[in-house]
Amino acid sequence: MHRVRAAVVLLSAVALAATACGSAPSAQGDGAAEEQTRQVSHVYGQARVPADPQRVVVLHTSAVLGTALLLGVPVVGYPALPYADGALPYFDDAKLAEARDVAGSFPEPDIEAVAATRPDLIIGTTGFVDEAAYRRLTEIAPTVVLEIFGSTPWKDALREIAAVFGEQQRIEQGIDRFERRVEQLRTALRGRAGNTTVTLANVRALDDIRIYTSDWCSGRTLRDVGLVRPPEQRVDDTIKLSIELLPRLDADVLLYFVGSSGTDPDEAGQAEARITSHPLWDTLGAVRSGQAHQVDRSHWFTCTALQAQHLVLDDLERLLLDGRP
Predict the structure, then answer these.
(1) Radius of gyration (Cα) for the chain, nearest Å?
(2) How is domain 194-321 classified at the CATH fold level?
(3) What does each of the 325 residues of the chain score in pLDDT, given as a tens digit?
(4) What is the dihedral of CA 159, 157, 268, 289, to 10 degrees?
(5) 37-166: which CATH number, 3.40.50.150, 3.40.50.1980, 3.40.50.2300, 3.90.1150.10?
(6) How many angstroms separate the CA atoms of 325 and 318, rounded?
(7) What φ, ψ does residue 172 adopt, rounded to 5°?
(8) Burial class (CB in 10 A: 0-12, 13-18, 19+), 131
C-alpha cells in the first residue's frame, strides 16, 4: 500500500521556496515613490504596510501565526494560549524563541506589550482585535485586521493572510502540495475504507460534547479524503450533546479530542474519564470494534494553519491505513 508521507519541514523548504509574487486585489503598490510599502484593504479600512516587514506582531494563534512562520516572516510578538506557556505545539519554537507574549487578557491584546516589541507591522483578526483596539494599535504601527473565519474556508483564509505579505504565489504552492497529499490519501482510503462513516467529537464537559461537522476546518479535511458522516450529522452547524445522548456519536470511526484552547484541561480530562467509563460509551459500534481514537486537540481543534492540516493527514494515515493507535 502506498504511504502518504509529506513532512511539514519539506513543505516549508520546498513548497514555500522564494519566488516572485503576484499582486492581489486587496494588496497593491502605488508606484515607484512607495515601492517599499503596499496598500492593503481590511475590515477596518486601509493600511500601508511595509513590503518586507522585519518586526511583525501577530494577533491570532493559528492560521495567521502559522502562515507568517511558513513564509519566514520575523515574528516579534504573538498571543500565548491560555493554559499553556506559549504557542501551539506544532509551531517551530526556534522561530518564536525571541518573540514576546502580547495576549494581555486573552484574547484581547496587551497594547503596552505590543508597543514594547517595536513592530513595523501588526496583523490580527476580528476575534482578537476589535475596532477600539485597532485604533490604539495603529498609533504603534500599520495594522491589518482580517475577518477570515466563521464561514471562510481555511484555505481561502490562508490566501488572504498571505496577500498582506505579498506572498500569494508561495502560499498557493503550499496549498497545492497539501491538496496533492489529500488526493493521494483519498485514493488509498478508497481501496481500504470504502464508504467509512466518521464522527469528529470534542469532549469539554458532561453536558458539552460537540460533534464537529464538515463545516469545521478538520471536518472539511475528513470530507475531502472521502470519509462520510452518518446521515444525522450531514448538517453545517456544530451539534452539542450531553452524556445521555452518547449514542449519537456512533459511526464506523470515532475521532475525539478533549478540551479546547479556552477550556481548563484538567476539567475537560475529568469529563472525558467519566464519559469513556459510562455504560453508553461501550454501546458505540466504534468503541466495540476498536475504532474510537483520541486525537490531539492542538491540531484537530485549532486546525486553520497549514501545519495543523498536515498533522491531521498524518493521524488519518496512521489510524486508518497503518492501523496504529
Answers:
(1) 21
(2) Rossmann fold (3.40.50)
(3) 444 343 333 334 334 333 333 333 345 544 543 579 999 999 999 999 999 999 999 999 899 999 999 999 999 999 988 776 678 888 977 888 889 999 877 667 999 999 999 999 999 999 899 999 999 999 999 999 999 876 688 999 999 999 999 999 999 999 999 999 999 999 998 876 568 899 999 999 999 999 999 889 999 999 999 999 999 999 988 999 999 999 999 999 999 999 987 788 899 999 999 999 999 999 999 999 999 999 999 999 999 999 999 999 999 999 998 876 6
(4) -70
(5) 3.40.50.1980
(6) 7
(7) -65, -35
(8) exposed
Furthest C-alpha separation in the chain? 71
- The H helix count followed by the E strand count for the chain is 11, 13
Grid cell digits, residue 141: 504601527
Q: Could you tell me the three cell numbers for 160? A: 488572504
Task: Tell me if residue 189 falls in helix, strand or coil.
Answer: helix
